[in-house]
């Protein structure tokens, strides 16, 4: 029996945007039809000219709980998520304490979600030196894959791996056909920053493209050698695009994401001392970021994820403006959709492109491509209704994040999320969260 019908003039189906009716029951999409069946007696929601599409999936989020809940936490992160149309997050294994590198630590993180899960959430396990023997235990717990750093992560409890560590772990991960996500920067001992620590140009020079390019070259080599699904997170250096394209042409199991901030901002517009823009790898120049857009258009970059990495304001050192010592991370979870849509719209992209980059393609990385990411019969009814022509201004009052610090403040963005549905249940409407604790844990 159909429990809810959503009809409108702009339903984003696999065949494109069209007038249609989506029928929902028992948390699933029962069917997508041209007209409302006469026999339907359930509630009918008419969204008229707003867009209905699959919910946003963000596989790169730092929730920081347990242990650093004062940085964010499951309650505020998942409230921000459903307010922004994000129906699934995947939490990174660092920044929490303990870090998620053992089965015991995983159980602590899972327990921390109780009563605080307002959207669906999965977890990445952590790969650090010496924990290769923990990989299978974490897989048994349900992690969706593993995350590793090739440079210091910023958290001493989560040290970077070496090539030797990767060679121990990748055959195990490959056996289970799970992805290995890699922060690709191979740092050197050379002190590259000079002069004023408040200078953004100096910070940019301190993390050059070569760090990324050398790390990506290594990961492509290991990906081919072990046939291990390898995912490059937050690509910033456009110098690696050709190398990535060649690897994909060879059929290697390689995927790549970039982040909204690399597509929306340019280094030329970041003023000295504006540490709210600090992230790693850094936001680069316009010419570089234009090339990232081209790679996204061509499918060389698979999708876009926020790398939401909040911290208490004192760690961002806004008053001193010291780029070299400030915490590196950009808070952006709730505005993932409007930021990307605003930038994409200026470049002539369509709603269909944004849905592919934020919903369909991320579903493949997290192993949910047969359940989420598209409006298809039998898929989960995790849906959003949004208006691409309405605008918002990013203010403190708008954001549900624990800390209201973001480089997007006062930006005028296109794309207002009007409704969010989890398993066919409306959890957010017109700026208000109307149902909490509706999220589920998603495991492998």
TrEMBL record:
Residues 51-424 form the Amidohydrolase-related domain. Its EC number is 3.5.2.5. It comes from the Bacteria. SUPFAM superfamilies: Composite domain of metallo-dependent hydrolases, Metallo-dependent hydrolases. One of its GO terms (molecular function) is allantoinase activity. Pathway: Nitrogen metabolism; (S)-allantoin degradation; allantoate from (S)-allantoin: step 1/1. InterPro entries: Allantoinase, Amidohydro-rel, DHOase/Allantoinase_Hydrolase, Dihydroorotase_CS, Metal-dep_hydrolase_composite, Metal_Hydrolase. Its cofactor is Zn(2+). The keyword Hydrolase applies. The keyword Secreted does not apply. Keywords: Hydrolase, Metal-binding, Zinc. Catalyzes the reversible cyclization of carbamoyl aspartate to dihydroorotate. NCBIfam families: allantoinase. Homotetramer. Belongs to the metallo-dependent hydrolases superfamily. Allantoinase family. Belongs to the metallo-dependent hydrolases superfamily. DHOase family. Class I DHOase subfamily. PANTHER family: ALLANTOINASE. This is allantoinase. The gene is allB.
